[in-house]
Amino acid sequence: KRLADDIANMSAGRKINTLSQDWGTPEKYVQAVKEFFGGAIDLDPCSNQNSIVAATTEYMLPRNDGLKDNWNFKRIYVNPPYGRAIVEWASKMAQEADGGCEIVAVLPSRTDARWMHDRVFATAQAVCLWRGRISFDNPPPWSKGDAPSIPSLIAYWGRSDGRFRDAFGDAGRVIDLNKGEP
């Protein structure tokens, strides 16, 4: 009953379709993001108790709500829940990027979805269409190496799309959304 109550009280756009929304980013991807950002991540608005991101500031439910709390940080990494609230997360990233921060996000590759076109392709500077599926690190009852049922992409909001291409080009096809060409 307590788990059900905790789930019912969650925010951050988590609309539960599984018992866990904590799909942890694997170490090699965390390291790639940290290298891209020059060694550190200032904010992880979607952190959890099992996260290895180790951002300077981590928002974790129930204490912090990444959809509602301040994103006044320079380098932000986002691995949001892949559920229905992804629209809210994409909107938040587009809005916050207008403030001058850099955001790297792992998102479900839903190239057919309106939110992807309106909130990611229309506002981000570049995306990396990830080759293969990202195997996430998940807490029990799941395990390391679980992959979502859909592929992922990496989106970038910021002013260094060339640096983004250099950092993530080996992982998949990087598309500069400012030019609309690969």
Protein architecture, described:
With 182 residues, this protein is of the alpha/beta class. The protein is built from 5 helices and 7 strands. It has helices at 2-9, 27-36, 86-97, 114-121, 161-168; strands spanning 43-44, 57-58, 75-78, 102-108, 126-130, 152-157, 172-176. A 5-stranded mixed β-sheet has the order 3-4-6-5-7, with helices on both faces. A two-stranded parallel sheet has the order 1-2. Helix 3 (86-97) links the parallel strand 3 (75-78) and strand 4. The termini are far apart.
Briefly say what this structure is.
The chain has helices at 2-9, 27-36, 86-97, 114-121, 161-168; strands at residues 43-44, 57-58, 75-78, 102-108, 126-130, 152-157, 172-176. The chain has 182 residues and is of the alpha/beta class.
Features:
single chain, alpha/beta, 182 residues
Mean pLDDT: 82
**SSE sequence, one letter per element:** HHEEEHEHEEHE
Which consecutive residue ranges, at least 5 long each, have pLDDT under 50?
A: 1-20
Given helix and strand content, the structural type is alpha/beta
Principal-axes shape call: globular
User: What proportion strand?
Assistant: 15-25%
DSSP strand tally: 7
Sheet with most strands: strand arrangement = 3-4-6-5-7
Count of separate DSSP helical elements: 5
Sketch the major β-sheet. Answer: 5 strands, mixed
Fraction of residues in H or I helices: 25-40%
Distance between the termini: 50 Å
Cα radius of gyration in angstroms: 15 Å
